[in-house]
Amino acid sequence: MPHHKSSYTARAASFKNPTASRLLKLMDEKQTNLSIAADVTTKAELLKLADVLGPYICVFKTHIDIVTDFDQDLIKQLEALAQKHNFLIFEDRKFADIGNTVKHQYSQGVYHIASWSDITNAHPLPGEGIIKGLKEVGLPLSRGLLLLAEMSSAGSLAKGAYSEEAVRMARRNRDFVIGFIGQRRLSVPLDAGQEQEDDFLYLTPGVSMAQPGDSLGQQYRSPEQVILESECDVIIVGRGIYGAADPVAKATEYREAGWAAYQKRLGVSQ
Ligand code: S5P
């Protein structure tokens, strides 16, 4: 059976990486494949979103470097909320440098990302050294990495052979690379000696039920297009939720739409 036709829980066992299996199981437990992109710029707003949306999401995605009043207490409180509501934290750092540099960026500096973020992501652009560098820091902490195989923005150069190479890099580092940021489940010819495609998680941004895009190149699709047609696993929604007058009501709508698409994909009748 193709991976995307199995339940999240059934797929959990085939991942060696503990963060991947934890995520898959908690999605079925909480009945949600919704991730919020919490792109707000103050500590208070970020923590409020984590607390009010926590029950409806599987992953809380941050851009920690846009928070003006960042401090260590923010991390402490965010971790407590992740425990309280049972969600994973994903710092959307988009590393893009050589292995030796990203290793320091991931573990040191102001943010110490590796110490609190279950998942982070990297561009495959520099080659496999970026994964090796991040892995030295992240694997001992049981963290998971996503590679940006494709982007949602207009004119993205991450396509074709570039995206396919991202999948090959991921196959060679399956202990640490748990999946991709991408627009669709990728189909890449198997490597020599490979009998079947490894399972990977696909987390997909560029999701809105209201807008076709923004004025800066973002392009949106619906939860159904992402989960059912493109066979991805998690919808990442930012402004469609936190920008609404009632973020909780919107999160409920996106959660229901994402979950219905997943049920349909599994062939479960409603
Ligand atoms: O290809 C991408 C990859 C990412 S991680 N396109 C994206 O938009 N993102 C992120 O998803 C982006 O950095 C932002 O945090 C979120 C989308 O936000 P929205 O407000 O457009 O839903």
UniProtKB/TrEMBL annotation:
Q: Could you tell me which PROSITE patterns the record lists for this protein? A: OMPDECASE (PS00156)
Q: Which PANTHER family match?
A: OROTATE PHOSPHORIBOSYLTRANSFERASE, URIDINE 5'-MONOPHOSPHATE SYNTHASE
Q: Does the keyword Lyase apply?
A: yes
Q: Which SMART domains does this one have? A: OMPdecase
Pinpoint the Orotidine 5'-phosphate decarboxylase domain residues: 33-254
* Catalysed reaction, written as an equation: orotidine 5'-phosphate + H(+) = UMP + CO2
Question: Which BP terms in the Gene Ontology apply to this protein?
Answer: 'de novo' pyrimidine nucleobase biosynthetic process; 'de novo' UMP biosynthetic process
Which Gene3D superfamilies is this protein grouped with? Aldolase class I
The EC number(s) this enzyme carries: 4.1.1.23
Which NCBIfam families has this protein been placed in? Answer: pyrF (TIGR01740)
Q: Which organism is it from?
A: Spizellomyces punctatus (strain DAOM BR117)
* InterPro entries, sorted: Aldolase_TIM, OMPdecase, OMPdecase_AS, OMPdeCOase_dom, RibuloseP-bd_barrel
Q: Which pathway is this protein engaged in?
A: Pyrimidine metabolism; UMP biosynthesis via de novo pathway; UMP from orotate: step 2/2
Name the residues annotated as catalytic in the UniProt entry.
92, 94, 97
* Keywords, in A-Z order: Decarboxylase, Lyase, Pyrimidine biosynthesis
Q: What class of enzyme is it?
A: lyase
What is this protein's name?
Orotidine 5'-phosphate decarboxylase
GO MF terms listed in the record are:
orotate phosphoribosyltransferase activity; orotidine-5'-phosphate decarboxylase activity
Give the family from UniProt: Belongs to the OMP decarboxylase family.
The cross-references to SUPFAM superfamilies, in alphabetical order and at most eight, read: Ribulose-phoshate binding barrel
A GO CC annotation recorded here is:
protein aggregate center
